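URGENT: need a sanity check before tomorrow's submission.

F., can you look over the E3 ubiquitin-protein ligase TRAF6 record below? I want to be sure the sequence and structure line up before it goes out.
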Amino acid sequence: MACYDSKQGSLEDESCEGAVGEELSNCALAMLRKESESLLSPSEGPGTLISSNSTSLQADAPLQGYDVEFDPPLESKYECPICLMALRNAIQTPCGHRFCKSCIEKSIRDTGQRCPVDNEMLSEEQLFPDNFAKREILSLTVRCPNTGCEEKMELRHLENHLAHCQFATEPCPQCKQSVRKSHLEVHTTVECQRRSVTCPDCVASFYYEDTELHEQQCPFANVRCQYCEMDLIRDQMESHCDTDCPKAPIACNFSIFGCKERMQRHNLAQHMQEFTQMHMHFMADFLRGLTLNGTSTKSLRLLGPSVSTEDQGAAASVLSCSGPRTAASCSINSAQNQPSEEMQRIRDMDGRLVKQDHQLRWPACRAQTQSVDAGRDGEGAGGPTVSRYLHLESQRFLCSPA
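Structure tokens as predicted:
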């Protein structure tokens, strides 16, 4: 039976004493034990793996051979017949063939106890390490596999080089994109879409990829009013449009009474002056719609939730003034019913409208009364007549029959 010579890295044809049948000789078994001890204790002799780097390289390596570019190209004698790559943890068989340790063990388990090259009977117990081939392969020159790196080194130093190579890539801790190590710091601080940024207006933190969304919602961002083009912060825009903007479209103050006009805020005063009489008619129609017992709710709904049950009672007091009753009786009924603040505001507004309407009608009334008084003998300029006219007009609008 053949015995393995670790110094020559090959099998020699010589008889070993004590060989029995097809079992390995005591010589081969002794050599196997010696080689196993050399792998466990790399500092004992020249037949061991050379550096701690190469040991860790083998520990973390994938199952198959070294898939790297050799310079010069790899010789076929160092190529695994199974994975066709450089031998990793080289193993030799009794029939003289070399394989990666994991490759030949997997082959024996999957396809049976035969050599993949010559189909000779082979078991895992017959395999033994080829340290000579290991040393030779680890001494071969390889190129760095990282794109852009021109470094060359022995295979045993490749792992250490990859740990520090500036052309090596690693995933960004924020976006998980593969980035060169030399560019990783710039990427994480300037380019990464998932980097954290701070809003200069509200000092809120968010991902850079959400910048556009935040700009649309930031309460302190500068925005421009769509009506008057004034620059404001977003948090003030709603209040500005509701109360201050001169060009914001608003409804007439008498919209609750039926006026459908809408205008810019700065045109409201002109509208109120030009349509005073129309507003008075709207208010009169509204008040007529209110019944004493509150059965007619159509007009009350125009006021929305501001009209309560108490306001309906107050509205009834206003209706008590309709019809041919005196102003004194209306005042008494109003005092007895104790109108709410809302109905009091309506009556105050009605009084202002009557006053505005009288002011607008004053020139025409004065001319009419002067022409009437001119036909009377000894009558004055018509001051008392004008007063009576104004009084009658106010009574007609306030106490007109339903």
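My own read: The chain has two domains: 3-143, 255-398. Residues 3-143 form a domain with the Herpes Virus-1 fold (CATH 3.30.40.10). If you see anything odd, call me.
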